[in-house]
Amino acid sequence: MNRDGLAHAAVGFGINVNLSAADLPTPAAGSLPPTSLAIALGQQLDREQLLCTILQAIDQTYAQLWAGNHDAIREAWAARLVGYGERVTITTNANTHQGIMRGIDTDGALLLEIAGKTERFLSGDVLIGPRFPQR
Alpha-carbon dihedral of residues 98, 93, 82, 62, nearest 10 degrees? Predict the structure, then answer.
């Protein structure tokens, strides 16, 4: 990126792999219950094999990024984007915003329509759909 843009990003995520329903916390009122891959698939998974698969996919995407295939990466990401056209809440360090998710832009910012205007968000926690309390 240019000197005015993002030079580095730290990305993290968590996956409940082999947890049972009893191992998971009770959901907040109005929230969906947490789940795990074992619950969804009906079987335990080999965590090392899952980690290797995830790291290989990250490595392949990273190689595409360095090869300049930005549009292909963004299109693949957008095709899997959960919540497009749905009401979402995004909480940033400064505020909480509610609106309709309109996708992602070429910089990877989440696009949220708020009161007829499209706002860009580069970071924040997103809750999708009617799972959040209505005001």
Answer: 150
Tokens read off for 128? 């999708």
In angstroms, the CA 88 to CA 121 distance is: 12
Task: Please name which of 109, 128, 131, 129 lies closest in space to residue 120, comparing C-alpha atoms.
Answer: 109
Bridge-based pairing of strands 117-121 and 96-104 is: unpaired
8-state DSSP, 130 = G
- Give me the pLDDT at residue 5, please: 66
Cβ atoms of 98 and 86 within 8 Å: the answer is: no
**Residue 88 burial by CB count (10 A; 0-12/13-18/19+): exposed, middle or buried?**
buried
pLDDT at position 10 is 77
Tokens of 59: 């490595």
Structure-block tokens of residue 8? 């580095």
The reported pTM is: 0.64
Q: Which of 90, 86, 122 is nearest to 106 (CA)?
A: 122
CA 41 → CA 11, 17, 26, 47, distances in Å? 26, 10, 21, 14
